[in-house]
Please model this.
Amino acid sequence: MVDSSADCQLNVAGLAGLPTFNFEEETMFRKITTLVATAALSAMLFTGSALASDPIVIKFSHVVAENTPKGQMAIKLKDLVAERLGGKVVVEVFPNSQLFGDNKVLEAMLLGDVQMAAPALSKFDRYTSKLQIFDLPFLFKDMDAVGKFQKSDKGQELLDTIEKKGLIGLGYLHNGLKQLSCSTPLHVPADAAGKKFRIMTSDVLAAQFQAVNAVPLKKPFSEVFTLLQTKAIDGQENTYSNIYSKKFYEIQPYITESNHGLLDYMVVTSKEFWMSVPKDIRPQLKSIIDEAIDYGNKVAAEKGEADRQNIIDSKRSEIIQLSAAERSQWVEAMKPVWEQFEKEIGKDMIDAAYKSNM
Ligand code: LMR
Model:
């Protein structure tokens, strides 16, 4: 029992055999123990917070399904980061336009609301006109040519064209070559005349459809299915993996295997975020991103084939093969678009890209 009388003797520990104090000594003792305890607690809290400091969170936002090259690349990135940078960095993936649609994601990135994304190259129109090169119709004969150009000095140069806008291009990611889907069969350019096609936000793509007297409409990817279903548009252009994973083939009875254009991505982050990543983590994070991109590229090659076959097997949509004569009509009609954008993109750039086909 504690007696408050000045001269009472106190067994502080309440244990027999330990020293006892009078009231003044006890007050002093209490002050000291409080100070020591506070200091110890602060030290513990400080050490604790240093040890378990919050990890860097990378929100990766994209618009496609998870079973696509980009969806798989993002998951791979998340897994590799958890495995190799666990505790220091965490990747959170938001597919299917859950967090941001294509037209908003880059703005959100500059505001710090999202740290990574991989928009289609066609969606950088507002940030640079140079990347429009990838939208020029019939520029690349296959994905090998695309890869060759992207790896070249000129291709790598293009990754830096968004830096002035506060964005960093971390690398290219493949999806594949685009096909034309429509409610009516498209064999020759005249079949597309007057038809409404959804396009990504790219002036080159608009010009490409205008070149065949069709009507292009810039719309977000998340709206394409409904636009097709309600017949607000007649068709769209996309890769087999997007046509399959978003079920466009279920409501588009014809797909013309035109391979007329490219759908590839740029994995991007903001300069502000990238510079905030500690210097000792950045190189490792970059090499993980490169590895995830390589993986995504492998998935792209496999999915292109597999989803094409899935669409054939579904019997919901007919894949139209073009004869050489039909194909050259499309090339002839669309190729003038190159000249239209030559000044903005640069002739040297277009020539370099074209040479990658050889
Ligand atoms: C599209 O909008 O059609 C594509 O960019 C979607 C995507 O990211 O593959």
